């Protein structure tokens, strides 16, 4: 059997991650998101799930104007930026190492009058710094991928949600563990698939907290 050398940069599907920026047009605005794969890895590139979620938000199925929105595992911040352009008050969060790039992207693409805060949120940690049940919408694009974080991610979603909160999760189902996450989530939330992007193979799920009376 011939050996084919594996050259990471030569895979077309990965090459876009090595660009120093990614450009999009949402809400009649040209957006430019800085990327830094070599320094920060997965947190510093725009994933297809973020693009699909941004497209979904732009379609207007969910009212964003004046709503309190938090994005988890925001990476470069595309989703939160689009939500802010659509009129939401957005808290864009990620782990500490991602925050500088995230803040820079917010600064590049939004004006100071747009209501955005960038802050650290490592799932399951320091949740008391955020208002319990204090958000109308919780957003997460491509954040279901590390099995070790599943419990703390669900804990975080529960903490941030009231009975009226909508959680939107966009993801690629890559491994069996990803479906396991959805099963775990269904113990605490009513979950329905609201959109599937065939071209990018991205699923979009809407989840609403099971009220205490209906808890399993
Ligand atoms: C695959 S990237 C997705 C980034 C962005 N949402 C997108 O779709 O372009 C996963 C993101 O989750 C974040 N993340 C991973 N584990 C986390 C944790 N325990 N707490 C908070 N964020 C985490 C990473 O820093 C990264 O930004």
Q: Compute the number of strand runs.
A: 9
What is the CA-atom radius of gyration, in angstroms? 17 Å
Enumerate how many helices there are, as a single number. Answer: 7
Q: What's the overall geometry? A: globular
* Structural domain tally: 1
Plain-language structure description:
The protein is α/β, with parallel strands linked by helices and 216 residues long. It has a single domain (45-197), classed as Vaccinia Virus protein VP39 (Rossmann fold), CATH 3.40.50. Helices cover 28% and strands 29% of the residues. Strands 5-4-3-6-7-9-8 form a seven-stranded mixed β-sheet. Strands 1-2 form a two-stranded antiparallel sheet. A hairpin with a 2-residue loop joins strand 1 (21-26) and strand 2 (29-34). Residues 1-10 have low confidence and may be disordered. The protein binds S-adenosylmethionine (SAM). Residues 42-43, 46-47, 49-50, 73-76, 94-95, 98, 122-123, 141-143, 146, 149 line the site of S-adenosylmethionine (SAM).
């Amino acid at each position: 059997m011939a050996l084919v050398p594996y050259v990471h940069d030569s895979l077309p599907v990965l090459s876009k991650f090595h660009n120093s920026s990614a450009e999009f047009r949402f809400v009649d605005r040209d957006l430019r998101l800085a990327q830094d794969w070599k320094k920060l890895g997965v947190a510093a590139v725009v994933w297809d799930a973020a693009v699909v979620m941004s497209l979904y938000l732009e379609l207007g199925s969910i009212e964003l104007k004046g709503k309190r929105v938090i994005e988890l595992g925001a990476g470069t911040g595309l989703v939160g930026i689009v939500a802010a352009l659509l009129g939401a008050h957005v808290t864009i969060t990620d782990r500490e190492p991602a925050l500088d790039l995230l803040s820079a992207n917010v600064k590049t693409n939004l004006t100071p009058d747009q209501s955005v805060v960038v802050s650290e949120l490592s799932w399951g940690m320091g949740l008391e710094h955020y208002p319990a049940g204090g958000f109308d919408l919780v957003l997460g694009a491509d954040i279901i991928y590390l099995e070790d974080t599943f419990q703390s991610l669900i804990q975080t979603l529960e903490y941030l949600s009231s009975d009226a909160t909508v959680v939107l999760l966009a993801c690629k189902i890559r491994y069996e563990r990803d479906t396991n996450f959805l099963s775990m989530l269904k113990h605490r939330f009513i979950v329905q698939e609201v959109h599937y992007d065939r071209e990018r193979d991205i699923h979009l799920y809407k989840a609403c907290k099971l009220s205490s009376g209906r808890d399993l």
